[in-house]
Amino acid sequence: MLFPNAETRHCVRQLHSNFKKAGFQTKELKDLLWKAARASTTREFDDAIDELRKTNQHAYDWLKEKNPTHWLRSHFSFRSHSDMLVNNLFESFNKIMLLIVKKKEEADKWKGMLCPKIKKKVDVNIKDLLRCAPSHASGDKYQVECGPGSQHVVDLVENSCSCRNWDLTGIPCMYALAVIHLKDEFPDTYVQTWYTKQAQLQIYSNFASPIRGPKQWASLSNMLPILSPPLRRPLGKPTKVRKKEPDEPQTTDRLSKRGVEMRYNKCKRIGHNKRSCKGEVGQNIPGKRHQVGAQTQQQAT
């Protein structure tokens, strides 16, 4: 209601969580859902969703009820120049003041024109362009072939490619880079300006201003006291990291004991523990006690 022109998107990870609760819990269906979400063109999406339909008709019907512009990369608009499918980026803005300072300090250390992560993406696409063959069509439009059935149209004026990846992200795809390489131009200049170091420094130059303590505030006699909101703290210890789904890879910082020889601290023997030890402590071993007793009886006889 407040921002009617804003583009609405849903986190695909949350969508998959609801997908599992609906009864579609196999890894095959999960992979097909993500394959459909990641497809950048409608043709790729149609192929992926048709494969999912053949695998499970009910799962297909469940997904068809969702608005495609909310979770499918192939249906996203180009206005935001973002192809993100999850909301991890927004969760990182909880501590905004400290984040701004940290980002500004990081950006000061960057070398080159682009942000480091964006530069890596451009370099990966540059490696892939070697198998592409561009040819000039007319004006600033080019036709690029990259193997059988893979042929796209690149427009350097509109910063657009028919694969949609350049339009979605603002980062030249391998087809566009093949044309840029043919024209012997600098690839970094075709990346959207908000991915540059200069733009990031301008963004994070506006710090959240610090404030003085309550004892230094000016008192107003005719103003009602401002009460703090009621504290509703949930039960249990506060979590520091996001809870992962059961099918997500679980990370741990515990050290592995594989290959380490364990020794029970009572019997001092390697390989023993509280459960496997039969009460042998030090040299006080039942078998040896029996043997010593037998020799003593024989000597006595």
Distance between the termini: 105 Å
Describe the main β-sheet briefly: 4 strands, antiparallel
Q: Helix content range of the residues, please?
A: 25-40%
Radius of gyration: 32 Å
Widest sheet: strand ordering: 1-2-3-4
- SSE run: HHHHHHHHEEEEHHHH
How would you state the average pLDDT, rounded? Answer: 82
Apparent shape: extended
Uncertain runs are: 282-298
Number of helices: 12
- List how many beta strands DSSP finds: 4
Portion of residues in beta strands equals: 5-15%
Secondary-structure-based class equals: mainly alpha
Domain SWIM-type: 142-184
GO molecular function, one term: zinc ion binding
Organism: Gossypium stocksii
Biased composition (Basic residues): 265-276
Would you summarize the structure shown here?
The chain is mostly helical and 301 residues long. The chain has 12 helices and 4 strands; from the N terminus they run H-H-H-H-H-H-H-H-E-E-E-E-H-H-H-H. It has helices at residues 12-21, 27-38, 42-55, 57-64, 68-71, 88-91, 96-109, 116-128, 165-169, 174-182, 197-203, 286-300; strands spanning 133-138, 141-145, 151-155, 160-161.
